[in-house]
Amino acid sequence: MISDALLETSTVEARILVVDDEPRLLRSLVDLLEEQGFIAVPALGGRAACELLTREAFQLVMLDLRMPEVDGHQVMQFIQDRKIETPVIVVSGESSFTAVSRALRRGAEDYIKKPFDPEELLATVGNVLQKQALAWAHRNVQMRLEKSEELHRYIVNTSPDIVFMLDREGRVCFVNRKIEALLGYKPSELIGRHFRHLIDEQDVARGTYALQDPAISAENPRTFEIRLKTRGSRKANRYFEITAFPIGDDSGQFLPHEIHRSNTSDPCIYGSARDITERKEAEAFINFQAYHDLLTRLPNRALFKDRLMLAITQAQRNRQKLAVMFLDLDRFKVVNDTLGHAMGDRLLQAVTQRLESCLRKGDTLSRFGGDEFTLLLPAISTHNDARKIARKLISVLKEPFQLGEHEVFVGVSVGIAIFPDAGQTMDQLIQCADIAMYHVKAGGKDGYRFYSETMSIGTANRLSLERDLRQALVNKELCVHYQPQVASDTGQVVGLEALVRWQHPERGLLYPRDFLPLAEETKLITELSECVLDTACQQMKQWIDGGHRTLRLAVNLSPLQVDHPRFVQNLIAQLRAINFPPENLEIEITENVIMNDLEQISRKLQELAEHGIRIAIDDFGTGYSSLNYLHRLPIHTLKVDQSFVRGIRSGEDGACIVNAIVAMAHGLRLDIVAEGVETDIQLAYLRNLGCQQVQGFFYGPARPASEINELLGTRAPIQAVV
To answer: Which InterPro entries match (predicted)?
Structure first.
């Protein structure tokens, strides 16, 4: 029903066409209407009225009958012919029954005789306008109802959702055609079947319970999510959001627990089912993305911490231990920088597969970031449980990884923190495992260590030591000592190995083991190596110019330095800057550096050899000891690791390894330098094997340049240090 206020608004603002051939009367009538708030439009004569009715719309026409040319009756006929739905009030001086009757038959709503009473005229205008407004409102409502019914039918038939109705027993009374597109069923197949036959078996109980909720009503419909079966077994079941409510007054009685005797099929429940499969899949993906690493598919840091907190709570309740391991891949950065990030990603995926093969059910392996992983071992009995897993992890990564045409090697450094010994909280355990891992790195990598309280003290010292080391490079506190390389048959010094020392202003003289691991970790090793090489080359140049033209300088180079794309160009430029003869330089690299990228290293070493620089393999026998790269690369010298030299005693394996290395070197026509010679027995054994050069404490420790000056000045065979 239209309110009075709405009607009042629609009548007061009405546009009224006033038609008369008397200008003065026309003006007075227009003024009277406008004083009441109407919009009065004058038309002087019938012809002008017809023209205005053609162009504009009016809510009311006030019309005089007697007018020249076109009278009022002709105007009303014009309105009828044109089907203009505008009411007419005749305002005329004619009062005969015939005139009034004729006007009313033409469609006039009322008849006012001139002269008119203003109040009566205004009342008549108001009544006609209100009647017209009601008529228009009624037609509008009828039209809207018809359109609404048509729209509802259209919506049901073309709805993107499944629309259904169920009877009192839960059988399908109606379902629209959308079900065929979404689930493959024809509507006729489902009529009369119970709705539970459409629901996934795991969701039947939930769906039935939702529709049996006594609180459900038309004002409070029930909305729930379930999976519906697709026709056949080829397509996966799909997720739907169901909205259902009862039809009728007995809404609390539909779908009772007991089956009614009535077999009525009248609709009792109306509902819709919206396909939300894509949304559920997106939610699942977002949830996975929020708590997993997309590259390795492992739990990320957030999920690992969540599981660790839960494991700590359970361990406290059950008075058990748990272990947190922090894993950092060794040599991963070399692979990533050399072969590219794509190969690095493939390597991380391969590493993940191997690590997962070592885990127990209930363990959590997480990618913490970069090449760092964390591992949670809940409910362990002793430290030995964690030790076994750590050894398996280290062992499984020793085998090479095949990345396309490249065979690469990585290791892993593992730090272990045990709850509650290492800490009571999540952050403490992770931090302690991280600290233990860094101690493994500092001790040579590729191993494991349990956290102990003394490590925290060492960590604090590391921070201050790093600061001091950066300052040492600026203040030139690093110095070079030289260890003689001696011909085993003559005792003559044939070469000098440059070894860095750090004259710390507070801690005194520090050896490489005290700061080189930290330099590698903080990436200061490149600057440090360049500093040592420059100092050693300038000093060696003085000795060469002093008459020792065949004296050879051996320098260890860091992997980061060798991996640099302009390594060869930078080294040659450095030698040319001081006019150092390349043939007097022998660079020492480890097998790990070579095997990380054999192809690239081979190219660099070939370039160095073409300039006359000698190549030595340091610590030979402790790595891969591959004849393949020895044959392919321009190697000049093998340095036997001191651990094998120490084993030169009757019947020990170390002697056998030395025998094999020396024999192999002779076969490949390579020079041999044995490191770590400390006794005359070792020296004699090596001399008899044909090992050309030795170095070690048998001839004393590495010495500063001033002492080497005295040693070279005598030109006599070097004597053993007693």
So the answer is: Biofilm_reg_signaling, CheY-like_superfamily, EAL_dom, EAL_sf, GGDEF_dom, Nucleotide_cyclase, PAS, PAS-assoc_C
